[in-house]
Structure formats: structure tokens, C-alpha cells
Amino acid sequence: MTGSISTVALIVAAGRGRRFGEELPKQYQTLLGRPVLRHTAQAFLDHAQIDAVRVVIGADDAELYRAAVGDLGLLAPVTGGAERQDSVRLGLESLLDRAPEIVLIHDAARPLVDAAVIARAIAGLAAHDGAIAAVPVTDTVKRTDGATIVDTVDRSRLWRAQTPQAFRFHAILDAHRAATGSNLSDDAAVAERAGLRVGVTLGDETNLKITTPDDLVRAERHLRARLGAPRVGNGFDVHRFGPGDHVMLCGVRVAHDHGLIGHSDADVGLHALTDAILGALGDGDIGQHFSPTDPRWRGADSSVFLRNAAERVAARGGELVHVDVTLICERPKVAPHRAEMVARIAEILGIPATRVSVKATTTEGLGFTGRAEGIAGQATATVLLAD
Fold this sequence. Notes:
- By secondary structure, this protein is α/β, with parallel strands linked by helices.
- It folds into 2 domains: 7-227, Spore Coat Polysaccharide Biosynthesis Protein SpsA, Chain A, CATH 3.90.550; 231-384, CATH 3.30.1330.50.
- It is built from 12 helices and 18 strands.
- The strands form 5 sheets. It has a 7-stranded mixed sheet, sandwiched between helices. A 5-stranded mixed sheet has the order 15-12-18-16-17. The chain has a two-stranded antiparallel ribbon with strand order 2-3.
């Protein structure tokens, strides 16, 4: 693909994040069920003024990149260099065949950037060669000789630089080429060195950069605040007994003198829970997505259905807060298997076991479950969603 496009976001994700202290780079760490990089890329993809997004990745990160954002339709990634400045230059060079008018350079580790911050950075180019998101310094600033204060700095003109940093494409590419090997602190410094006039636009305190595990916790807090009120969905399922030597309940094989009859493995717990999650999303029911007449699902492991529901939550930027399953039957006994069921559901959904509840009850001999003709399951799921 070649041809001119107006505005490109270049996301820098080639760093190793050594200060984060874990083997997995911070841009691929999970933030509310999705990789940090996915949150970042989505913010630019969703912005009306951004025509395309390209990510600069580490030489060994192709698989991590594909798993994180490979389905989003971004421009093909480009491999970065030893230092951030090298990575940005290589990313800019890779855009030459598209000749964008404007490029926004953004750190992958700032996943909370919002549409207003992006728009203000672009608008800043009306009066300057470059414009960066920044926040004014509000704390008193002291200059020391190491341990002793020697001066109080006037903070009235001090700003803390963030990203995105917006530039005319050819101007910042030339500036980066001229600054090769200088290892400057950010792209604004590269532009300043080249004599470009760089303006400041208002950033946001929540546009934090994830550097340590504590920053990831803070980011999760801010994202939850954006998600607002929880949504709750309910699900119900029932299957009758038939021939067999076990039943599948909440993903666990439980020995029994009968089986359950169903098109798939007839797991009433996972079926009810799948419907509960789909209900919270307003996304139909299990039969709509996995038709009981489709031969692909004959005898299928119901974890496939539940995992798909969880992926739908993640795809919408949501979070599964809690799930609760109640199994209704006279037999088999559920209590000996409850802990294993909780662990299995947590594994399928990719959430802590503390967010999963499994209970069982009887109907005191009443109805079809009381007559031991089958098993019923009901479930509730609580989900946080941005929309």
C-alpha cells in the first residue's frame, strides 16, 4: 500500500522496560484483560483525526505484537533500534512511502491517552512546527547540591512533557536524521536541536507512563473509573439425564451413574455463565453464537463458549468483575468439586479465583430436578464496560 495519508500515529513499543522488573516488556503486560499496547493503539485507531497507526517493536517481539494487536488492522510493524531515538527514526523512515503531512509520536506505555489530548496536540501545529502534550508543574520545585537545597525554582513556566508529540512529518524526520547518535530525552528535544518551534498543549494527569508495577495498578484504577457503572447479566440452562458415567459441571468431569444429554458436552454451569456474560454485554445468547444445530459443536467442550464470551468483553475494553454460578440438582454432590470448579472457571475467563463463586442447592424433592431427571444451572455476571 502506498499513497499519501494525512496523519499517522507512530507508537514506540521497542523498549524492554527494565525498570518494570519483569521479563515480559511492560507494553505487553495485561491491563484490565488486554495488553497495554492494545489499549494504546485503540485510542488512536478510534480517533477521527488519525488515518493510520504504526507500531515500532523490538526485534524479538513479533509474536507478542501479533497476539496483542495483530487483528486491529494497523500498518505493518517496523523493528526499532537500540535506543528510543533510534526506534523513532526508523519508524519515521518507514513512513516515507506514505508521506503523511503530520505524525504523532507516542509511547506505548501511555495507554490512557484520551481523544481530547490527541486533538489538542494536532491543533497545536497550527501555530508551531511541533506540539507536545504536557502538564504544568504544580508542586514547589527545589534545586539542590545533592542533599541540601540551594534554590527554589520558579515553577510558573515549567511543564512535564508527555506524549503524543505532534510534528510536520518531513521536518521531524530531517531533525531525527541530523540528531542520530545524540540520545536526546524526547522528540521535542530532537526538534528543538534542529531549530524547530515546539509548542505546548495541555495533556492530562491520567495520561501516565507505565514504568513500574505500581503504575500499572494506578492505570487500572483510572480505567475502572472511566468504565462507570457495572452491567449485570443473568443466564439459565437445563439438561436432562441420559446414559453415561459422568457429567461435566463448570468445566469439571464429575463421576455419576448418568450423563447429561446435549448437543455439546451439556455443561449447564458453563452454559448458564456464558449466557450471563453475553447478557451483560447485550450480545444475544449462546445459541445465537454457537447454534445447537451446527455439527461443529457436537460434543464440544463448553469452555470454548465461555472463553469466547470473555473475549467479547475484552474486545469492548471491559472487565469481568465477578461471576456467580448456582447448580440445582439432587445429585451428584457438588461440594467435593467446588474448589476445582472455581479454579477451572477462573482459568477459562482469565480472572482471579476470588472473582468466581460456585454454589449448589436442591429443590427439596420438587420439580424435575427434585425427581433427579436432570440438572439446572443459573448464573450472574457483573461486567464493567466503557460504552
